[in-house]
Design brief:
The chain has 148 residues and is mainly α. The chain has one domain. Helix content is 86%, strand content 0%. The longest helix is centred in the C-terminal third of the chain and has 30 residues. The radius of gyration is 17 Å and the shape is globular. The N and C termini lie far apart (46 Å).
Length: 148
Amino acid sequence: MATALIVALAIHSTTDGLVLGIQGETPAMDVTKWSLFSALCIHKVPEGLALGSLLIGAGLHRSAALGWVAAVEATTLLGGVIGYFFLTNISIFWLGLIMAHVGGGFFYLATHAILGEMLKHGKKIVLTSFAAGITLIAALNIGLRLLG
């Protein structure tokens, strides 16, 4: 079974939840907080699909793969609970370190994914898709700022 992948994504999802849980402690605007929440929610869809596909490819039945995906993604809620209830009133220094760690992880994963796709499919389609994704996220942020 793909134990290493399950453990790695569970840790990743827990840190996603931590950020959601501690964002109430940060001096960011409400719009920025909704932007982070929406980005993480959107991020969870392809993450769950990729995990499910890889688990099925590793030989698990669909029902078992679905159960593992649900368990792994539920660790996001666990991280949120930990962040909200146990990491309140911590210093800005530690908040910054946690946010920097998770943000750096996002950049690393995005860079790794883009470079891997460029090797498989070529630069033009991958960079076009990347630019479209950035544009969509920017439009979402602008829309949230206008509404907020």
